[in-house]
Specification:
118 residues; mainly alpha
Amino acid sequence: MAPHPGSSSRYSQRVHFAVLVWMVLFAVLSCTGGVTYAVFKNKQVAVRTEISKLQRETAVCRMNANQYRAKTNALTNRWAMRDRLSQDGSTLRDIERSQIEIARSRRDMDRLSATASR
């Protein structure tokens, strides 16, 4: 088979400059896409890690709050306080209903004095 006129068999196996440029551009785009994906995925993993850390800290705080609430309820329980007072030999005793006076607020007192002065 005869070569085309004007073309040489010496240069027939060479890659054209335009194809070489397109191959380089494709390689750069592929690498840039891969690096961008890796950066975004790394940020996503970092955010997930921080969220799970905050959720664990929140759970620990809730557990501590529940423990303190339980301790407070145990310490301020009426019957537990009575037992502690009797064990300590305290002179505090129950108040009888006849000893209780109704406390009046300042507003009630002002209202009573206003009606008395009329």
